[in-house]
Request: fold
Amino acid sequence: MCAGRLGGRGCQATAAPRSGTLGAVNASLFLIGIGKVLFGIVVGAAGVLLGARVLGRLLRWGELDEELKNGNLGVGVLGAAGLFALGLLAQHAVVATFAAMDLMYRGKRLAAPMLGRFAVYGLIHVGVSLAVGAAVLGIGAFLFGRMTRGVDELAEIRKGNVAPALVLGAVMVVIALMAAPGLETALDGLLPLPTLARDEVVEPL
Reply:
């Protein structure tokens, strides 16, 4: 109690001591965010590149490294489009994985087993999505080639022709955009999502 003038008007308010809860929560969110960033780097650098190599085997555009070393612009353009298309598919899988893990572990303290389980489920989910995505893009490119019987796009691309590489690359990007939502829904079955009762609402933290 302050004994200042007119009922304590001249007194200064004393700030309440801060609790350590907010700091702990922010530290957990920071570590989780760093983990997601590292996971995204691994998927983007290694996973998508491996998926592109699988796609290259399916389309038989030749050895990507060797063709790039020889300056084959056609293969370079198609490879870049394949990487972009696979990145679109993988991005949906990564977002779905993060959302599922956030739902599973909401309100729980950060622990090593939790991170290990997250890494395992995330790598399986994204790995399957990249493999399925490469197959989807390969099938789509094959069907497009069957519909354009007057031009053998892949043969021209191997020769370094950029024009068919641009067209086929655009087709793969469009296929990725169209297939990504369905692929995300199908692969959600691989994640052990909690079952909510009817009309049950999860209160945000």
Residues 32-185 form one domain.
